[in-house]
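yo

u said u wanted the structure for the complex thing, so here. seqs first:
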Amino acid sequence: MKKIFKRILIGFVVLIFILVSAIGITIWFVFTPEKLTPIVRKQAAKYITCKTEIGKVELTFFSTFPQFGLKVSNFTLVNPIINAPSDTLISTDQLIGAIDVRAWWKRNELVLTNMQLCNGKINVFVDSLGHANYDITPKDSIPAPPDTTKSETPFRFIDIKNVEFDNIAFNYLDKTQKMHAKIDNLVVLFKGSIVSDTLNMHLNVNDCIMSFNYEGEDYLKDASIKLNMPAQVILSKQLIRFGETEGSINDINLSFSGSAQNDNINQRINTDIIYKSKKFPVTSAIALIPPSYQSYVEGLNAVGTASSDGKITGFYSSTKYPLMDMHIVLYEGTIKYVSLPLPLTNTIGDFTFYSDLADDALTYFRINKFSANTPKSSFTTSGMITHLFSDIYCDLTTSTNNLNLVEFAPMIPADMKMTIKGKVSGTIRTAFSMSQLDMMLLDKMRFSGSVALSNFGVLYDSIYMKTDYSTVDFSLPNPNISSKNTKFMYSKIKSKNLEAGTLKSYKTFMKDALISLETSDVMDTTKLPDVACTFAIDSLAASMDTIKFSARKPSGNFTMLSKSQKDKNSQDKIVLAYSNDRMETNMGSKMSMRMNKANLNADVVNFLTNPAIKLAFSGNNLAMRMDTITVGMDKAQMNTEVADYSTQPKVKFAYSSDNLDIQMGKNNSVRVYKIQMNTDVANDTTQKDIFLQWPVKGYLNMENGMISMSSFTKPFEIPSIKMDFDPEVFNIKESKLKIDRSDFSLIGTLKNIKSYFKKDSLLRGNFNFESSQTDVLQLMSLTSGIGSEKTDSITKPATSDPASTSGPYMVPKGMDVTLKTKINKAFFGTEIAKDISGEVRVKDGILVLDDLIFTTPASKMQLTAMYKTPRKNHIYAGFDYHMLDIEIESLLKMIPDLDSIMPMLRSFKGKGEFHMAAETYLDSMYNPKKSTIRGASSIKGHDLVLMDGETFSEISKMLFFNKKTENKVDSLSAEFTVFKQEIDVYPFMLVMDKYKAVVSGRHNMNMSFNYDISLVQPLKLCLNISGTMDKMKKRLVKCKYGDLNRPTSRMMVQNKQLELRRIIRESLLKNVKKE
Amino acid sequence: MKKSIIYLVTFLSIAFMFNSCTKEDNFDEALLAGKWLSVEKVDGVNHQVYYRYVNNGTGSTWDITDNVTETEAQAFTWTLKKSELTQIHIMSIGGNIPKIYTVTELTTTSLKYHDSFGVNYSLTKI
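structre next:
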């Protein structure tokens, strides 16, 4: 068996040797280059119109085994065209070609088994008129008939088994397409076969350096290109279908498949290509960006790797680009950008670029995910960027778990004078266009997010804010509007602690705060922003200069709405609802206020033009202090309404509280157990006086009040007051007061208040004054000087001690006030009067006690008194006194001066009837002006006892009274008058036992006197006594008077005197009130 | 003794009964109208006291030494019958004080009178 194989092998080798020898003889000896070269040149000239240069043509077999081939050295085609960069179309050192002649001859098949170009150049040029330098075949002399048949090749089958370019420089310049491609060091291996018009091919570009320029733009510049491409080309359709093609541009390796078709009719290329790259350096990809687009990445320094896949579909023409759907993945990398003050490391991204480079609406760049680290922070972003070719619109969502703001502080423009620190975590979504950003059209932009601030601090100029930990949710525009006016922004701040303020002035500190805020466009400078804010804070403290404010658990909501320009019926409005558990505020060391639970509701309408204000406040344990004034109250309620503020303000004010305590200094205080007040004020702008400008009406109820004032030694106790009032009328429905020893109830009406202040009318009052006990002098001191002019006024406040006053009591002027008194007991200094009834009237500087009836220990009395104070140094005092049943002894005790006027009264004991009217003017020290003293008196008594005095003894001795005579006076009836210093005692008759005597005379203020005593029964004997008590002259004189009881015995003088007495007495008795 | 006294009184009474009446002067009350000044001594101090008599029988008086002006003057009514000048001073509070004077001189510039206690007044017309 082995021998058989050996012999077969030997035979095969011999056969090959013979065959090779035959081929060698054929090549080297039959078809020598010298014989073949002219043949080829001759044939080339037939088919090629341009100049050809063919160096040497050899027949090859071994290099083209198993086919014979031709090897042409120094092959050149020269076809000069104007403006062509070169005359040479093709120039190659070596061209080898091998064709299966048998297949061509027998089966009409073109089988190109081998074709090689080595070390050559190919220059393809098409000028601007479409003249191509590769158009080198002769044109048909006979015009071809219209091509109605299907295009067919001359061969039934074309098989290109091996086409190889080695070190070929290819230059393609098409001025009609403005396209320039240049390939150097081209090493290509091409295989293919054409059946009918279909070329199935495989192209392998091992390596080349390629540049490509289109319309002046360098799309490739000296790029290293590799390509391994199986493809099918349908020539009739100018369609190429790429198989699984792999290639590389520089160090970017990619594979692709799909198809491309030249559409001559529409002058475009239809593409449908899917590609996928391997990881490539980002720098390489950036380097491929055409120069005109390099500005987009100017300043960008990106290091790292990336990959991309996608597809390119659609038409490519001079006006259109195919649609690119590119998916780009960025692996670990580092990005530095000149505008970014810090590098981004560990950058990982996933992007999609979708564009036909023409349709702005179609184009987008989607960041599926991008994450990066800075030296101290990290963040991720995703979102969409659209309208890349016009107004770029970004819709991005950025999240971070740790963003250190200190790193980003350098990004803040220096002229903003802002520093920032702290850490941020959370998510922010932004959606805006570049034009919106440039013009700061915040109402058009979208911002939303939820971030947590840790150890955050920001300082803008002198304004600062800092927080240990806060979360902020925000959204522009407001997605959950509470009103149609606050669409612009929503923000919700939840802070463990938050401090804000200015460096030098105010400061606010909040703890555990929850604040929600909605606003309208804050950038709209034509109107105030609409604001809706709710807040709930555990504690709040604020300070501004010397003002400090703190509150515990303040909460509420605040709404401010501006008038809509569209809706004419709308109004500016502020609504506030506020409450806190405890609040405290200080202004310096002298003013403070604190309260426990408080609620404040405010409603202000039209606050920009004509505010209408409604305020409702309720607070408990309210305490205020201003300097030496302190105010405290419990359960305070205050309601205020203000309307027509800019024209004629109307104010409604209601106030009530328990335990109102007002302290002014050490000695002035007001304490009220319950107080309720309701007022209604309407501003009268026509008035000048502020009291008249703000006339008040309403009511006041008060219980258990206590007023202490330094000017009064005793406090005012007010068990109750109920009164209502309006600008003209004070209606006191109930008032009970206690002042030291005085207690009284005052009920009545005070009218003409407004007119009084306008000086149009007297202030008129009508009151019932009821008292169980009243200290009259004390009450008088309270009202001293009210309404007096400055020149007449008292310089110091009145006190309860009249003796300590610096001036006289001045009766209030401009008023007509009547007190209908009913006093059980009244104190006049040391005197006590009981059961007083009558009227006390104060009328325009005049005080009148009108027909006051009262009881004193001495008598029941009727008193009319008048006290006028026209001026401080001219005071009128007058009284009309009627004592109907008085002990003369008590009378003298009550009116000691009477003893000076009628000294003889001292000598009588018993009850009498006494009437007296007197008046005088006083100076400011209450000294009587003697020229103004006037007085008249009438006294009448029965069964009086004549005291056995020294004077009487002397007189009785001179008148020869019986020693046994009882000192009893049956009746006494006398009148006397006072005029200046003269006291005239009109003749009166004493009836004593069997004696009757008439006494008359004059008593002077200097205590001198001149009396006539006429004994008319039982004998007529007249005595004149004159001088003083110390130096009394007694002499018998001619009688002036007869028996006054017997008209016939009266003398002329006596009748005259009796007439005068009648005048005096009747004028006095005229005022006696009948019981 | 008692009888002696009775006789004495009786004698004196008869003697007085035969006293003749003196003739009383008549003065023209028209001369009284006007403003008069009287200087009156009060507590050793001369006071300037004014009187104004009005034809209708009313009048007023004020003492400027006591810091009283005419507008603050006190009112009175007056009558002059022959030589008897009656002034009834009217109190604001009610009540009248009659004063009777005997005129001894009344001219266009001078007025003199006295009361029953011998107090003389001399007034000068202003």
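The longest helix of chain B spans residues 2-17. Helices of chain B lie at 2-17.
cya
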